[in-house]
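> forwarded from #structure-qc
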């Protein structure tokens, strides 16, 4: 089948992308507003892009109603700081509770039951229950696509501090079986590691 994306709706293009690009790691991004309100939200359009310096990116979409930015992005543009908290299988329910588009005054730490703990070099708190946290300083925000629903932004940040749970790391290698990473599929579906294959 050959499909012309210009002939499809935003939703249809989204379904093709999210059903094809998988599994996707899930970043739970914690931020804080200038008024001190914490926000956490999951994003599966997320990856690492450089190791010198360590640099990661994620992509918050525009709100469904159009040009409005999500609270996560507004907080990052205000403070230029954020934390990426990696999602694991045991964190599925709490992560899912953060995915709702709450008003800016709502603290998703309270909604989800996640525990905020202080970061070392940035103001936004880390998630205690997450075994890996990346403290980040904003490098750049790149608008992508149209200024309407379906458009998005690419947020690029430098990792200024790693936090790795002692029981999953040895000689700078992460034990993925102990980590139990959770990945996003399409629709309501997620997956764990499954069978490990080496080449």
């Amino acid at each position: 089948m050959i499909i012309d994306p210009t002939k499809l709706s935003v939703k249809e293009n989204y379904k093709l992308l999210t059903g094809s690009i998988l599994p996707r790691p899930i970043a739970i991004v914690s931020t804080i507003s200038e008024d001190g309100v914490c926000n956490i939200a999951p994003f599966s359009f997320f990856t690492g892009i450089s190791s010198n310096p360590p640099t990661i990116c994620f992509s918050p979409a525009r709100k469904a109603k159009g040009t409005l930015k999500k609270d996560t992005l507004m907080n990052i543009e205000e403070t230029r700081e954020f934390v990426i908290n990696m999602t694991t299988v045991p964190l599925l329910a709490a992560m899912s509770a953060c995915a709702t588009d709450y008003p800016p005054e709502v603290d998703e730490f309270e909604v989800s039951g996640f525990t905020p703990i202080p970061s070392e070099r940035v103001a936004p708190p880390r998630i205690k229950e997450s075994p890996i946290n990346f403290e980040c300083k904003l490098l750049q925000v790149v608008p992508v696509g149209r200024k309407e629903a379906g458009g998005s932004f690419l947020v690029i940040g430098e990792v200024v501090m790693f936090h790795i749970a002692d029981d999953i790391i040895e000689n700078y290698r992460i034990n993925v079986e102990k980590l139990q990473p959770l990945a996003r599929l399409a629709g309501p579906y997620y997956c764990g590691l499954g069978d490990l294959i080496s080449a």
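QC bot note: The radius of gyration is 17 Å. The first strand starts at residue 24 and ends at 25.
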